[in-house]
């Protein structure tokens, strides 16, 4: 399998997952403020600025906007083409990756992704968002779910499939750990939070990961930081928990490396295996004893290392970062070769 094809498979999958995550997070935050009865003019920076940290885009955001509020942050993550992590940008890049490998994916996958691209690009989408953002974000989420279903139903279970699964689960693990880290820092920072607002914030974390109903089935007790953290980091049955996604990533990497004997391939398998063991044998008590931010930051660094070693083993012969413009520039360079 050509490294160019593997790279495009991986990033097509990651970009689709990233677009869905952005749609869910922004939609949930809008509804959170409405449900909590928080007026848009009531300290908007406090409720919107932390979301920018999820994708580490603060510098870019403040180059484009003066303030973080209910207008600027949703626009930044939805239609801002200068933001590489916006829905518009990620869907566009997912389609571009799919276009370069049309012979390696099913026609149904390409047609669905192409329709999604034109839906997001259309002037009607902006009008729909202006009339009610929820309907637009629901279309983006439905499009992502549809793409995953079509992929499951039409692709051979070969290396291409493994790279798609790897991209999806690495992206999910990264998104979940970052979101949990940002919300925990937000609630432990300066300022008092009423109990009902703190509960609403943790409920928003669950809904941002499509985990609210699953959490309610798993725990009878009320929503609180300890249980939410335990569920989203260490659950072995919830498909967006960090542990679940790392386990599936490890399985995909093992399958890809079945007939590969290089030192680089062994290195990436060892790195994902170490992270997998830490999550399988760790507990929420370990996380809280270490501190939420140091523990989750450590997971993100380990995921970054897996990404770098994955590129060294299968895609390019140099380590690359995992977020922002450097990824985009690296991909464009790869596609020109």
Report the sheet with the most strands, covering strand number, pairing sense and barrel closure.
Answer: none
How large is the radius of gyration? 20 Å
Shape: globular
Given the structure, what is the number of helices?
17
Helical fraction equals over 70%
Q: Give the overall average pLDDT.
A: 87
Query: What is the H/E string?
Result: HHHHHHHHHHHHHHHHH
Q: How many DSSP-defined strands?
A: 0
- How many structural domains are formed by the residues? 1
Provide structural commentary.
The chain is mainly alpha-helical and about 325 residues long. Helices cover about 75% and strands about 0% of the residues. The chain has one domain (about 5-335). The chain has helices at about 5-35, 45-55, 60-65, 70-80, 85-100, 105-120, 125-130, 135-155, 160-190, 195-210, 210-220, 225-235, 240-255, 265-280, 285-290, 290-315, 325-335. The chain is globular and about 60 Å long. The two termini are about 15 Å apart.
Characteristic key phrases:
single chain, 337 residues, 76% helix
Topology:
Layout: H1 3-35, H2 44-54, H3 58-64, H4 72-78, H5 87-100, H6 107-121, H7 123-131, H8 133-154, H9 159-188, H10 195-208, H11 212-218, H12 225-234, H13 242-256, H14 263-281, H15 284-290, H16 292-315, H17 325-336
Helix pairs in contact: 1-5, 1-8, 1-9, 1-10, 2-9, 5-6, 6-8, 7-8, 9-10, 9-12, 9-13, 9-16, 13-14, 14-16, 15-16
């Amino acid at each position: 399998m050509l490294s160019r094809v593997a790279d495009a498979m991986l990033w097509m999958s990651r970009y689709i997952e990233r677009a869905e995550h952005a749609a869910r997070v922004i939609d949930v935050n809008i509804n959170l403020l409405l449900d909590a009865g928080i007026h848009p003019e009531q300290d908007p920076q406090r409720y919107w600025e932390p979301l920018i940290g999820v994708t580490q885009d603060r510098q870019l955001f403040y180059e484009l906007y003066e303030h973080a509020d209910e207008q600027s942050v949703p626009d930044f993550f939805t239609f801002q083409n200068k933001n590489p992590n916006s829905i518009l940008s990620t869907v566009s890049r997912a389609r571009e990756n799919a276009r370069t490998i049309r012979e390696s994916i099913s026609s149904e996958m390409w047609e669905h992704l192409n329709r999604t691209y034109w839906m997001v690009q259309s002037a009607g989408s902006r009008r729909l968002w202006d009339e009610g953002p929820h309907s637009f974000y629901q279309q983006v989420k439905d499009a992502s779910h549809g793409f995953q279903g079509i992929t499951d139903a039409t692709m051979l279970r070969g290396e291409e499939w493994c790279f798609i699964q790897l991209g999806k689960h690495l992206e999910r693990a990264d998104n979940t750990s970052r979101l949990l880290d940002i919300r925990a820092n937000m609630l432990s920072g300066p300022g008092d939070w009423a109990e009902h607002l703190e509960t609403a914030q943790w409920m928003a974390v669950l809904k941002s990961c499509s985990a609210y109903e699953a959490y309610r089935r798993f725990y009878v007790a009320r929503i609180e930081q300890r249980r939410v953290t335990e569920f989203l980091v260490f659950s072995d049955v919830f498909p967006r928990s960090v542990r679940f996604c790392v386990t599936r990533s490890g399985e995909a990497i093992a399958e890809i490396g079945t007939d590969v004997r290089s030192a680089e391939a062994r290195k990436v398998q060892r790195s994902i295996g170490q992270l997998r063991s830490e999550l399988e044998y760790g507990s929420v008590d370990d996380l809280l004893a270490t501190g939420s931010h140091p523990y989750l930051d450590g997971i993100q660094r380990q995921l970054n290392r897996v990404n770098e070693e994955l590129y060294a083993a299968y895609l390019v012969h140099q380590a690359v970062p995992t977020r922002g413009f450097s990824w985009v520039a690296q991909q464009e360079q790869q596609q020109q070769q």
